[in-house]
Write a structure and sequence with these properties.
mainly alpha, 2 helices, 17% helix
Amino acid sequence: VCDSNARFIYVGVDAVGSAHDSRIFNYSTLPSILYNPTRTFEDYFMLGDAAYANPSNLLVPVKNIDGLSKA
C-alpha cells in the first residue's frame, strides 16, 4: 500500500507469487487494520483492481457497466 506520495506504508511479503490478489489481501493483516471500527480513514481511499470484492472502503472498477443507465 502506498500513500499519495508513492511511499510504502504497508507491505505484505508472506504469500507466494501465484496466489490470487484478493486471497493475499484477505489473509494479510491489512483487513484487520482497515476494518477496525476504532480507526478512521477519513482522508484515505484504498484502490483495488476488479479481482476484489467491493467492501465499503475499497474502491474497485465498476463491474457490469453495460447495465448502467446514461445520466
